[in-house]
Amino acid sequence: MPEERSLRVLSNNTTFFSKVSNTITKLLTPTKIGINGMMINIKRNSAMKIFENLKNAENANDVSKVEQYKNRYEESYTLYLESIDKHIMDSIYKKVKNNTASVFEKEALSNYYTIVHLKENEYLEYKYRKQKFLLDLDYESLKAGKKDKVLNRFEPIFVEKQDSIYKGLLKNYSIKLADGIRAKVVNQVDLYKKIFETLEDYIKNILPIKIKIDGENKYSKILEEYEEYEKFSIGKLDEKDFLEKNMILLGLSRVLFTHSLPLVAAEQCYKKLLKDTRNLIVSSKVQEKKEKVYKMLLNLIEDYNVKLLSTKVYWDKPTEREDYVKFWNAYSKTNSSKEKEILSLKRELYDTADEYEKYSEVRKFYKNKLVELGAMRKINKLSCKSPIGHFTKL
User: Fold this and answer.
1) Among 83, 105, 113, 352, which is least packed by CB within 10 angstroms?
2) Mean pLDDT of the chain
3) What is the pTM of this model?
């Protein structure tokens, strides 16, 4: 009996102290947020000051100061990220645990643990994505707090570090894609998806800031393409729109990420888009939609040949290069859209010849188009019987 009473008392006390403990934690959480927020401000200010000194030293060509500030800047940047990381663990985690967190904070913590989960098997991706997450979190908090002066001063660091992060991610995916193709791994869908998502994330969230703070008009050449992308960045997209958006992203990548998304990886991405577009032409049952996809295909063929193959130096087979040069010389000399269309279709027939059965339906579509353009004659079916069977010749 005494034992039973003791257990009941202990149970009551545990409940009581648990409630008191939770109350104290909730009272202390704002203090933690305040302390962590103050530390983030201090570390951010330190990183910004050293970054500005570094840029001034670079502009003055002061080599000794550049080296000195570079080391100090990297150290201050690391301490700044650590202060944001500590804020997540000390403050956001406790708010989520105590059910006092906002929707934004709950989502932030969920994303944080998704990234941490990468550490064991995908360390490089984890390293880049964690930096990106911490920078994004602080940047969004400054925007939400309407701290425009701090934001304007912080943006040069923000875009410089984000540039490095996105380049690292794309290079990582490119290496994996090349390794997978060499090893003849069939399923590369996830890697293509990651490449296009990373490009879109950069062009949607980082490029506008770079354009805003650009004082040298560096991005004037891609503004038209960027405006084209913006048309596809809102609203619901069908499959054709989705492919067209990815085509624009790839075109922009040839300017923004020439080395981080190497030609070999970019070529595979173009081939993937061509393959998907061919399939969509065949699967489209409505003639109007089929024609829209076909027009997009012509733009994609031009992009692929102008922005990528025309810059290709190393070819696996010399004959492929010779065939391409013949095509490109003819294509670049003509001003007629009809002649360009004919050349593009003939090029497609050449490119799909090795997989004749796979692309038989789309090849028929190309040939019908060439007949319409007067570049090919339609031959009626000829039938004949032979001792070994019945044959039909097109």
Assistant:
1) 113
2) 85
3) 0.82
